Amino acid sequence: MAIPHPRTNRPLSTSAAKDWPFRISSERELDEVLTRPSAQLVRDIQTVRSPLVLLGAGGKMGPSLAVLAARAAREAGSNLEIIAVSRFRDAPRRKWLQDHGVTTVQADLLNASSYRGLPHASDVLYLVGQKFGTTASPTATWTTNTLIPAWSMRRYPQARFVVLSTGNVYPLCTVRGRGAAEHVSPLPIGEYASAALARERIFEWHGEQQSTAGVILRLNYSSELRYGVPAEIASKVWRNEAIPLQNGWFNCIWQRDANEAVLRSLELASNPIAIFNLTGLEKISVRQLAKTMASKMGRRPHFKGRESKTALLSDARRLHQLLKPEKISCSILIDWVTQWVMNGLPSYDKPTHFEVRDGKY
User: Which CATH superfamily is domain 26-221+255-280+312-324 in?
Assistant: First the structure.
């Protein structure tokens, strides 16, 4: 899908944006938007069994996912307890969760004895994973992505699981198509992708052995305004830095939309464990996205390299057809992220390395 190339920097009309703001001007506003539940989620959260445990909830997606669930439960009139489990090295993040009604449990999931202290749960969201730093320390990635899944499944054999995985398990696909659908055989490139596939296989094996129901979601590029491919490209445009083109196309999904899909996918849990792609339906051109952002920022984009005939792309139509989710459009995300970057608002400064093609992260 081509990114629209606006002639002006005027904000989106209310008809396009519906109830979403024209711009997001602070982290507080951003967190409110990221944790605002849809009517669909408020309806579906009533089927989730209490407590809902999130393993590995201290990362980029976990905190907003936990608070989104808590807000949905409150709006539904449900007494669902949300329990976020993490090492919680970031004390302010833990306090933010607690202030928003989420129970926190501090635990090192690489320590086998920690599992004895975890609360009982019938529904579990598995968010643990390690990607960046794999090339420098492959043993840490393999350990995180294999031992913790096994121990988690053994701790919760009767639970429904939703497991976050990655589209990196797929081969690079032609940019002329829609990307890899779930029937495409995995062909991981590099140690990170191989360890991610091992994580999936461990969940599948334990599911078979224990009759545990679950869903594996292969996520491609969850994005918000402080990180993600659009934010990264916007920052490069604003700083007049060259944008790499070797992976010339990508998929992404607004983080709130991804988190809603994670929660609503509990209803799709099955045995054998089901697999779905989780990303946006748009296939986005890096070059065109940069040009669109540059026009809004009053900049001229700079590029390096050339587009390849293949890229890491996933076809998520199957999950979208089942959930029929509400979602943020690319045009709204572009407006938000360009304004955010131009206003000098905070960034996590965590590159996605979307340009990597050899699997070395």
Answer: NAD(P)-binding Rossmann-like Domain (3.40.50.720)
